[in-house]
Amino acid sequence: MNGEEWTNFRLTEEQEMIRDTARKFAEEQLLPQAVDIDLEARFPAETFRQMAELGFLGLPISEEMGGAGMGYFAYCLALEEIAKVCASTALGLEAHISLCTYLIDSFASEEQRRKYVPDLASGEKLGSFGLTEPEAGSDAGGTRTVARRDGDSYVIDGRKAFITNANHAGTFVITARTDSESSTGTKGISAFIVERDTPGFHIEKGETKLGMRGSDWANLVFEGMRVPVENRIGGEGEGFQFFMKTLDAGRVAIGALALGIAEGAYERALRYAQERMAFGKPLAKQQAVAFKLAEMATRIECARHLVYHGCRLKDQGVEAFAKEAAMAKVVASEAATFCADEAIQIHGGYGYTAEYHVERMYRDAKLCEIGEGTSEICRLVISRRILAD
Ligand SMILES: Cc1cc2nc3c(=O)[nH]c(=O)nc-3n(C[C@H](O)[C@H](O)[C@H](O)COP(=O)(O)OP(=O)(O)OC[C@H]3O[C@@H](n4cnc5c(N)ncnc54)[C@H](O)[C@@H]3O)c2cc1C
User: Fold this and answer.
1) Cα 124 to Cα 112: distance, rounded to the nearest angstrom
2) Cα 56 to ligand 1 centre (Å)
3) pLDDT higher than threshold 80 for residue 7
4) Average pLDDT of the chain, as a whole number
């Protein structure tokens, strides 16, 4: 009995096909460039075009909206396989699908969905999600960007920080206050779709990053940016809940991405420990090394259970899964940093070099404990749910 049968995570033929296609794509296309795009901090635009051709940019989006209609689980399996080899590429894909495309597809009007989702699902346009501000990250209710109504449009002023895909995206979803500038509550926050060429919208270069260096990020600057009223998603003041619900599903996807990093690091460490000789025998024959591998494998299985469970809940249409999503993200992201750290240790000095990939995985893994709700915020979400039950 293999792991998937044992854990009752038997995949459908379609899901297996997506996983295998993603695995082959990652090994053939991503592996040869993963080290270079990290060292050069280069977004692999051509890779995104290839993924668009494979239908990956709209994997879980319905066929009616131009996607592949494969469901969230299949999409997360693809993310996992891609992240095993190149987490930067997985992060760009995740932000495009889980954060931007899904938000519009789930919460926008029929007219807005028809206008924006097909181009995103086909990969004609890349999507981006602007929630974080220089002074409002975990505390997103502290959003300072303001949208003032002026006839048939809103005039938006403010800025967003650390926004993935920003330099390459054509469609952005952002939050802005529509109540008053001095307000800090979440009820006055609205959501807007912003097109790249909107006058008053500028992209400002992002900082140098620790990891995920092959993924793109930048700051968004809005100076008197005029957005038509028809680009507001939902009513005034409804935007915050759309963004928070989007982050629930996003946390499952970041969990899948982290699971991929953990597995990638573990597989490399396992192979190395069996090949590298020291004191007359392979490293893996040293109990101290074998126990590291045992701990890595155990944490990966824990993460897989929680991530796949989150995927199933999402595909079953369960709405209240914030706790499960946060658990999946915490366990998988901490498994990723743990496994990448131990993989470097098992590789010794070679693990400290770019050539062996695990140092990149270590730097990439850290993002998973920060983006889309830090581990502390995820534990806050979990604790609030268990105390309310
Ligand atoms: C590579 C990368 C890509 C990103 N992409 C995007 C994107 O596409 N779109 C987007 O909107 N944002 C994006 N972000 C931003 C990310 O979501 C935020 O960095 C994250 O939410 C944390 O916010 P902050 O950086 O302001 O940290 P802060 O909120 O200032 O937190 C600092 C520390 O304090 C802790 N803390 C804060 N509040 C509490 C509390 N109540 N209890 C306990 N501890 C607390 C945090 O856990 C953290 O450890 C990205 C970030 C990175 C690094």
Assistant:
1) 16
2) 27
3) no
4) 96
DSSP state of 165: T
CA angle 296, 301, 303 (to 5 degrees): 95
CA-nearest of 148, 220, 231, 245 to 188 is 148
- Residues pairing with 171 in the sheet: 127, 195
Q: Tell me the residue ranges of DSSP E strands in the chain.
A: 127-130, 146-150, 153-164, 171-177, 189-195, 201-205, 217-228, 232-233, 277-278, 281-282
Closest C-alpha to ligand 1, atom 1: 367
Which residues, judged by CB distance below 6 Å to any ligand atom, belong to the binding site of ligand 1?
95, 129-132, 137-139, 162-164, 209, 212, 217, 367, 370-372, 374, 376-377, 380
Q: What separation in Å is there between the alpha carbon of 272 and the centre of ligand 1?
A: 35
DSSP summary character for residue 237: T
70-92 per-position pLDDT tens digit: 999 999 999 999 999 999 999 99
Give the tens place of pLDDT for each residue, 362-380. Answer: 999 999 999 999 999 999 9
**What residues are labeled active site?**
372
**Which residue out of 91, 102, 135, 138 has the highest number of ligand 1 atoms within 8 Å of its CB and is therefore the one to mutate?**
138
Nearest atom (ligand 1) to Cα of 135 = 26
Strand pairing partners for 220?
Answer: 160, 203
HSE at residue 254, side-chain half, CA atoms within 13 A, is 32
SS (H, E, C) 59-108: CCCCHHHCCCCCHHHHHHHHHHHHHHHCHHHHHHHHHHHHHHHHHHHHHC
- Ordered by where they begin, the domains of the chain are 3-125 (1.10.540.10), 128-237 (2.40.110.10), 240-388 (1.20.140.10)
Take residue 12 and report the two structure tokens written for it: 């459908």
Whole-number Å distance between alpha carbons of 100 and 374: 19
**CA–CA dist 234, 208 (Å, integer):** 36
Q: What's the whole-model pTM score?
A: 0.97
Say if residues 260 and 80 touch (Cβ distance below 8 Å).
Answer: yes
**Eight-class DSSP state of 30:** I
